[in-house]
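Deviations from the work plan: none for this task. Representative record:
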Amino acid sequence: DSGVTQTPKHLITATGQRVTLRCSPRSGDLSVYWYQQSLDQGLQFLIQYYNGEERAKGNILERFSAQQFPDLHSELNLSSLELGDSALYFCASSARLAGVGEQFFGPGTRLTVL
Amino acid sequence: KNEVEQSPQNLTAQEGEFITINCSYSVGISALHWLQQHPGGGIVSLFMLSSGKKKHGRLIATINIQEKHSSLHITASHPRDSAVYICAVGFGNEKLTFGTGTRLTIIP
């Protein structure tokens, strides 16, 4: 158990809908990262937050947004969902802002868009 | 072209064999991570390296900064080691770039 929690575990929805994925980092970790793992693209970095502020952005679509709240939990919002958004979404947390720091992964949310 | 290359893509071995998975990257990095992903999907961080060698149980990870190459070794492999092993690198920040993974199957 990494100490990172994600909810829900599974999510099935329809095209055009909007969903929210939730992540709670390990106690004391200020950095949260979101990753997408799809069959055709593998694991990709989406976005990083540190202590409530956005710090780095990767291959995140404009239809996707995220935020980190004062209690450090983070939410990833996916809107106008398309079939291709079906994937595993992981969050990870780290104690560090940048530089060398181990990341601890949550169990993931499996999103299926029908 | 992926900046992180892993080989082999698939590896099947008998229980007890010594396993080596390789990872090469194209530019200077701040750190290299080895991750394990089991069939259920969960990802576990095995090692984070910026130089030298690390050992944890039957797992050993090495990195050669000059050659931009890392290896993950498993000694006395066991069926429970069957998983996908993923190499990921950070280029000056923690925005990780991932390899495509090596699917390891250990046959009893």
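Chain B is about 0% helix and 60% strand.
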